[in-house]
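tool=predict chain=A
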Amino acid sequence: MQDQVRKLTELKPSTPLGNIALALSGGGFRAACFGLGVMNYLQRTAYGVNNLSLLDRVSFITSTSGGSILNACYTSRMIEGVSFRQFYEEMRNFMQGDKLIGEVFKLLNESDKWNEVGTKLDGEKKLEVRKNPNLINGFAKAYDSLFFRGNTFDLYYNNPSDKKVTICFNSTEFNNGQYFRFYNSGDASKVFMIGNYYLNFNNADVARRLKLSDMVAASSCFPSGFEPIIYPNDFIHEGLNDVDQMLDAITYKNNNPLNQSAIYKKQFSLMDGGVVDNQGLESMMAEDDFRDSQNKNRFDLMMVCDVGSYFLSPLETPLVNTKGWTSKWSIKSIFRLMFWAIPVAILCILSIITGIWRPVGLLLLIPSVAIAAIHILIASWFNKKKSGNAGSWSNTIFSKIDFFLTLKLNVIIQMLKARLASVVLLASDVFMKQIRKLYYGDFYRAPFYKDRTLSCFIYEFAAAHKQTREQNLNKKDVAWYKQVQAELSPSKAIEDVATEATAMGTTLWFDANEEKDKKREKIIATGQFTICYNLIKHIYRMEIIKPEVKNDTNVQDLKQRLLADWAKFKTDPMWAV
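tool=predict ok
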């Protein structure tokens, strides 16, 4: 029913820039830096009779992966009463060089830092449950030591500041392949909104004690780069160590009804929110509906900051290497060669017994026996599989295995490389871009949202997007764009900085060359001038949709200040960093 409303109902904002929602996409430090630039510009831009900054008008922030690092850092510091300027400098320092990754590996090598122990009852027996000493938990610990300093979700429930922002860190749970939202509006009675339809919290006391660092890690552990983070094991700390209580805090009644016993009060895995929604759009749309259901105002502006793109890297299929020893040997030929280890092992034993060439026999005995044993075990295993009844798939594979074994090693290596490359591209690019396309289709094409959206894409002014950007403006914004085209067209300096920022990979560090090239500062600057441009564009669009905006002195004053800043960005894209 709600989808039908979105498709058929046109909803205009009550005010152009009143109640704002902000979505921060995933994308490692590229996302965090771009979002930081956007926030910085929103903070410095005041609007309205009360002269509030646009950032102070943000009442909801949803995020994924790298965006969740920024979301949690900003909102936690805001609640603690830290000034935006201080937060901004702290965040820039946090993302300096390889500081974070250095802290991670330092922690992984300090066994005394992995002392989190929980307890779980098994009948009358009390069992110890420990946090896994792996890479994703190393990052969680590093987030905690470098920024969050032990802060938990309770910080948001006991918010003493005047700024009230609802937050949502998006992750993905692997029991059902659904989003899992760490949602907090400051209202403990809404604890059931942490999770999803299948798995959700029912105990606010446990939810309050979840560490921010662990939730951010759950939102940012992208597939292939990290292992999953496990609830409850990896959320254990000194203040939350009763594993039975942590499991009881989850409602399982809707979870996997086909196999309830396999999941009831059992641990479950969480990974990067980008697996199902890398922009957090579904969370933002859900919050818009929830506010309406609570008789609160819907958002006037739904702002999306995204460092992903529709650009797809082509698959480079590896070629077969026709040189070297791999082009001459097959698995079968190596296996035949291994057979000769059996008579060699026998001869070694005889030489030791008889004393003839005894030193040589002693030298070759262990390797020849080991190779012979491996040969016998493999041969036995293959014969058992070929004669067994393990299922039609297994039988079919083993009936043709001789063909595979006779292939030269260089061909097999090429086949494995091609498969690995295609799987990585599918997981990291194709699937995520298709999911992005689906969510964007629902969001941007629905009349319900189209007049309330503001997009801020890192690639907006990248050289590769120039033609598409100009085509879109001349097609969709023909009512106003021609009159201001010269004024709004980006300079070459802007395009160069944006192109560099777009090319940055998804990492949680800046290497020495990137530091030297000021890549971090260029991505922050790209966030600043891109949001400035899109705010101008939004006002021009509002003037067409709601003609009275042309007579709104607050909006017109803001537009002139934005245009003045845009002129400065065209001359020096880095001036506000």
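The two ends are 46 Å apart (CA to CA). The longest strand covers residues 166-173.
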